[in-house]
Amino acid sequence: MSLIRTAHERSVSHDRSKGLSLLELLIVIVIVGALATLIVPNYQRTIEKTRVKEAQGSLAILFRAEQMYKLANQSYGTFNQLVSGTYLDPNPNSAQWSYSTSSADFSVGFTATATRQAGAGQTVKLDQNWTGNPINDTGAGGPYQGKTFFGDHPLHD
Questions:
Q1: Nearest to 64 by CA among 126, 122, 136
Q2: What proportion of the chain, given as a percentage, has pLDDT over 90?
Q3: Angle at 118 between CA 140 and CA 79, to 5 degrees
Q4: 90 vs 57: CA distance, rounded Å
Q5: Does the bond joining 41 to the residue before it have cis omega, within 30 degrees of 0?
Q6: Distance CA 80, CA 85 (A)
Q7: H-helix or E-strand spanning residue 4
Q8: Cα of 22 vs its chain's centroid, Å
Q9: Are 100 and 115 in contact (CB under 8 A)?
Q10: Where are the alpha helices (DSSP H) in 74-142?
Q11: Quick check: 82 and 68 in contact, CB under 8 A?
């Protein structure tokens, strides 16, 4: 009989070591939840920064297209003139941003604007002097709200 009990006790203790107790499972869930609360917001900020960098890069291309257009035509061009000519190819409009140019007088200057498509309320502007506004975020705020991100003029050394 002692042999049977010993075998039975070994099988019970062996079965217990194969599974997780409820306490161990709850500890794992708490740790995973804590990590998720740290990782998800950082991931979202990184994605938002990447989207704003897209607008910044496209506005820099639009700026250079305006400079080339002015050299050829003695005035800055509208967005449609840049796209229909060979100055801006391909069209920079994307799922995230739409771009436009505006001016009271295109012979004097222009303002290039990137407007967020997804309804976040963000606009980014750049003018003929390479001066950009801080991001105008009428939405819920973002990592760049109130910060200017255009550096030195690309045509200066």
A1: 126
A2: 25
A3: 115
A4: 14
A5: no
A6: 8
A7: helix 2-18
A8: 41
A9: yes
A10: 79-84
A11: no
Element (H, E) at 127: strand 122-127
**Mean predicted lDDT score pLDDT of the chain:** 77
pTM over 0.90: no
Question: Please, are residues 101 and 66 in contact by the beta-carbon 8 Å criterion?
Answer: yes
The CA-atom distances, in angstroms, between 123 and each of 20, 60, 65, 127 are 52, 15, 20, 13
Token pair of 111 as six digits: 């303002």
SS3 37: helix
Within 10 A of 104 (CB to CB), how many other CB atoms are there? 8
| pLDDT the model gives residue 135 | 54
Hey, what are 77's tokens?
A: 């061009």
**Of how many residues is the chain composed?**
157
Amino acid at 72: A
Q: Which residue has the higher pLDDT, 40 or 11?
A: 40
Query: Vertex 56, ends 154 and 110: CA angle to 5°?
Result: 70
